[in-house]
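At this stage, I wrote out one protein, both as residues and as discrete backbone shape codes, and that material follows here.
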Amino acid sequence: MKAIFHYDAGPRLKARFTSLAAEGFEIAPCPEEDDGRFTALLPDTEVLLHILKPVTAAVIERAPRLRFIQKIGVGVNTIDLAAARVRGIAVANMPGTNTPAVAETTVLLMLAALRNLPGLDRACRAGQGWAVGAGLQERVGELRGRTVGLVGAGMVPRALVPILQGFGAHLLYWSPHDHPELGIPRRDLPELLAEADIVSLHLPWCPRPSG
């Protein structure tokens, strides 16, 4: 079986791919920006391990042996499902696979903003140490006691609820539907925006139609 891993791969992942050759799996890493290599690999490819770069109808057309597209992630909005269906190509995703990473990164960004981490980092790298002006303590803060508004009620917000509660934050959420299982108050979006110290967006990206 020949597959493309359509993303750059580090040494450990490449070694893992090589080890699978003995089991009949030939997996070729291909950075997303290397269109020439991708085009050359497509005609013999049976499986596409897809990350981010859209799998368009044109891509599918250039892969006559393609039988399966595996999204290494959650959404399948970057895959032309209609074109895959016409060809009888199976498509799968991995629900929840990146939920912990996204939730942890969300908390990381909240803390970085509250503690003015970018500014302090720049000052330290410039040899200024803590000499960043008077009132530093008034320009930084903690999650404890803050009101965090979660926009969306999917897997990432659900993972964030216990983490943020552990920090002592007050939580609100908005969603088109009630989710009492979250155990936090629901607000209309304008109310959430007015009440929250921090707003965290967790919604599918839907580009606005042109024209």
In short: The radius of gyration is 23 Å. The chain has a mean pLDDT of 92.
